[in-house]
Amino acid sequence: MTEFFSNHQILTSYVLLPIAIILARIIDVSIGTLRIILVSRGMKALAPLLGFFEVLIWLVAISQIIQNLSNWVNYVAYATGFALGNYIGMFIEERLAMGLVAIRIITQNDADDLIEEIQKMNIGTTSLAAKGMRGHVRLIFTIIKRKDQQIVLDLVRKFNPLAFVSVSDVRSVQEGYFPKSSEEKRIFRRLFNSSMNRK
Predict the structure, then answer these.
(1) CATH class of 100-170
(2) Is 0.70 surpassed by the pTM of this model?
């Protein structure tokens, strides 16, 4: 009987508890990564809510570490969960495609076909003639939802594969051609639909 409880305690201390700590850290760091990204994009309603759950889960994980200071496996589990949480958080954010991006396209070739195709996708563009180091160029500028970024980049590769393209995040915009629904509502809907599909 004593041996049974001893083996059970070893299993709990060196296997089950570290696994629980890893999972808790993955969840709280993933939430934290998302929260930082939301803050940088000015989404004031969703970021504090994520922050609440992030700290709550972190407190649970750190309390287990403090209660078992002599168990070095917990330290490794804590660090492992942190590393995995960063990766998973960035992966989730990439899948959700939150926020807006500004795309600047500079091409030396005729860009009328490219602009026409982009606008056919219901994406607004601004273009103007400019002069670069090697002569006259065409500058195309658009601000789009990040989920549409790959569509524009694929069109650039198709019509002007040698064009110079730069992409940067946009915190906020005023006016412009965008759907009426807010970004935060769209994120809530995608998270809800994703959880429902898994069921």
Answers:
(1) alpha beta
(2) no
